[in-house]
Amino acid sequence: MDQKKSIFAKEPWWKRRSKLEKKLVLSLLGIVIAFIIFIALVCVKYVIPERPCHSSHCLLAASQVIGSIDTTVDPCDDFFTFACGKFIEQIHGDIEATSIKALEEKVARQVAELIKEPIKEDDHPFVKIQKQLFQNCMNETEEEQENALNIFNETIRELQGWPVVEGFEWDEQLFDWKRAIYQLRRKGLPYAIFFDVQVMPCLVNKTRNAVYLSEPFVIRVEEEHKESYKRYMVEAAVAMGAEEKLAIVELEKVFDLIDRVHKIVKENDRPNNYTMADVKRELLKERYTIDEYQKRHEALDWLSFINGILKPAGKLTKSDYVYFPTEKFVESLLSLLDKTPRRIQANYIMWNVLDSTITYLNKKLQQIENNYLCVADRSLQSNDRYKFCKRVINRTFRPSPVYINYARKYLPVEKRNKVKEMLTNIKGEFTELLKQSSWLDAESKEKALEKAQSMTGVIGTPGDYFNDDIYDTFKMEPKFAEDVTESNFFEIMLQNARHQVDLSFARIHKPNDDAYNDIVYHRAVATVNAMYSPSDNAMVLPVAILQGIFYDQDRPQYLNYGALGSIIGHEITHGFCKDASTFDKDGNEVESVWSNATAEAFERQIQCIIQDAEDFDVEDTEATINGTLTLEENIADYTGVKVAYAAYKNWVRVHGEEPQLTGVGYTPYQLFWVSSISHECYQLSGKSLEQSLKRDSHALNVYRATAPIRNSAEFAKDFNCPLNSKMNPPDKCQIF
């Protein structure tokens, strides 16, 4: 029996398999096990939600979201009120209480802490000089202010005096407005009274510099403030020694001249819808050699006038090219000056000089200015000595040493690298959009992709700001360090102003200096904003915007990509709209990087966005958004949030899903959209609303917040918005 059993019993299943079958079974088993492990990992990383984030940074973010959103509102019906409703209600419509204003005030405090610090032994020499100068300004005595007034009066006497003060002893035969302008320039005083003169990169060759003449800045006095301004003029002149009756008569004529010059400047303002290409074409029309221009406009000796201002730092010949203002402006202004008596010319010039420097002078004059500003614009009052000193000191240095220290303290290398990663990710997504854009033909798309590849990002401030070599870009008069401790504050300011203009004018005929141009970016360090420079093909993220509601490296990235990421995408997009289509990948001005076919296709593509803006219903007014005026910004808004969202989804694929915020009850993707409009949470009304609709190239904030989202399929999916709901219309506008 036992033997029979052994004969008829089957061999085990495994032994009956051939070698090939065994190999196949083992391979299949390995695949199944690997698949199970993979699914488990995916579940852990992507499916199984992590517990909410309880860090202090997350708790702060959660409280901000809870304090902003109005959960009684359906986000598919009115996303702006849903995301901002509670916050707007809490600030009671106060435009000064917005999150951006709060961040600007925070930045101001941060800068104040640095500039008020005592001078340290290990401070860089430039930092020591700036701190010393700040202390001099803050501690300026009444005696020193009187000395400043004496310096001012002596300067005015050298300019043949101020007629309204000297009365009938003033000799008009000794006065020439051009000579007065030359002397003001060399004294370090404001000289752009009738024409401004600047040295900037040449439009036709970016590697060289050129001289530009342009219209001056002329104060625009609102109708309701005109009498107050006239009273300010008279009181200031009387304080300088004028007789009141004479001052009333003569300064009325000066005010009339101010009004006339302002109208001439205004008539030559470029339209709000002018693109950079339009501006370039207009400037190129007015590019002449001095000799050519002299033959067209003989009323002024242009070579003598320009060199009189440039002297002693630069000099032109009659064969040099200069960019002039429009012919209409030049003809109108010179005709007006020809008809204006010398006495009024002199009073006008001296008033401009006093108005620009009055804050440096004695208490009596400062109070006269403050009395006017109290009526016209409280934000410009100089009662706050710190604000005045900070503003003056920052103008004195190019760049400001305190801004280098600010970058070092508030943008450590690790934080900068994380922002750089975000910028790179978003630029990558934008590049993908360019590749998919059907309205770009092959030639234009190739140039656009080259431009995207070449675009640089200035994060915080240019260069290695932790290396003291960065101070080599500073230019300062050799005696300045000595003067800081020995000279009158006002005198130091005049000396430095003169020196800075000399540095600028000395760049004529020299190659364009990138380090000098970087000063623009250094000066933006403490600005809560971002920008794109077409002439550098660079987007700039100042240190100040890399904090607060826009960025916190320790909070979830969906909030950072929503807030800061959308802004990064916005600025990148500016490099590829019509305005920037006349700049190539290196920032050189060209006719256009678009073919005619692409330009025509773009015009067709934008009609949807223009119409969408103009169809938007603005509450509390019959006025509408100007779709053409706001077009470039609207395109950047639409595209910015789109590429930021795509970049965040890619970030998640690499790093995994992030935890939710405690007590908020919304998914990370939903909070991305909430975060993307957090800086738009305010409400305009009355005059502010009217001015925004009439003049601002940015659309109304409610439209900016909702239009890109309303035209996003991803938003509708994340909030499960039904088709045909207000935030999920069936027809959506897209550019890229």
UniProtKB/TrEMBL annotation:
Gene3D superfamilies documented for this protein: Collagenase (Catalytic Domain), Neutral endopeptidase , domain2
Q: Which PROSITE patterns match?
A: NEPRILYSIN
- Where does the record place it? Cell membrane
Record key words, sorted: Hydrolase, Membrane, Metal-binding, Metalloprotease, Protease, Transmembrane, Transmembrane helix, Zinc
Q: Name one GO biological process term.
A: protein processing
Highest lineage ranks of the organism?
A: Eukaryota, Metazoa, Ecdysozoa, Arthropoda, Hexapoda
- Pfam families registered for this protein in UniProt: Peptidase_M13, Peptidase_M13_N
Which residue ranges does UniProt annotate as crossing the membrane?
A: 24-48
Q: Which GO terms describe its cellular component?
A: plasma membrane
Q: How does it sit in the membrane?
A: Single-pass type II membrane protein
Molecular-function GO terms, alphabetical: metal ion binding; metalloendopeptidase activity
Q: Record the organism.
A: Photinus pyralis
In this protein, which residues make up the domain named Peptidase M13 C-terminal? 529-735
Hydrolase listed as a keyword: yes
Q: Which cofactor does it need?
A: Zn(2+)
- Protein family per UniProt: Belongs to the peptidase M13 family.
Return the protein name: Peptidase M13 N-terminal domain-containing protein
Q: Where is the Peptidase M13 N-terminal domain?
A: 75-462
Q: What is the first-listed, main subcellular location in coarse terms?
A: membrane
This protein's record includes keyword Hydrolase: yes
